[in-house]
Amino acid sequence: MDTQFDVLNRRRKELGMTFEALAKRSGVSMPTVVRILSGKDPHAGFDKVSAIARTLAVVVAFQPAGTSQEIKERQAAKKARELVGLVQGNAGLEAQAVRAAELDSMTRQTAHELLAGPARFLWSI
Fold first, then answer.
1. pLDDT digit of tens for each residue in the chain (125 aa)?
2. Number of domains, the chain
3. CA-to-CA distance for 112 and 80, rounded, in angstroms?
4. Domain range spanning residue 100?
């Protein structure tokens, strides 16, 4: 599967544009252009990537990676595991560890409560 950087580099080649020409036209330094298009700078700034894309006439589009409900459910499950893990850790310190089946039940219940409650609890750190 192509990365966004592969798409940009393929477009550059299709247009017959050198790294130097792309750098000059986009206003991004040549070393940065080379790093971005080679995939060696996966955390490149949006401003630089979008400047390169604009120069290559490539549309930058944001696509959701799943439905809102799926993302909320993943967050609730993650946070529930963290919260229940804290409870398990404290109970273990007091020599009252909770069995695995009970942990699973607590995790599911906590995730359900996080989804049913205010969004600020779901997204708080």
1. 778 889 999 999 999 999 999 999 999 999 999 999 998 887 889 999 999 999 999 998 888 888 999 999 999 999 999 988 887 766 555 556 667 788 889 899 999 999 999 888 889 87
2. 2
3. 9
4. 68-123
Q: Is 62 a member of any domain? A: no
123 contact partners, CB below 8 Å, separation of at least 6: 75
Q: Is residue 24 part of a domain?
A: yes
Measured CA to CA, the distance from residue 21 to residue 1 in angstroms comes to: 27
Predicted TM-score (pTM) of this structure = 0.58
Is the same domain home to 83 and 118? yes
In this structure, the answer to whether residues 51 and 16 fall within a common structural domain is yes
The span from the CA of 110 to the CA of 77, in Å, is: 8
Of 10, 20, 100, nearest in space to 56 by CA? 10
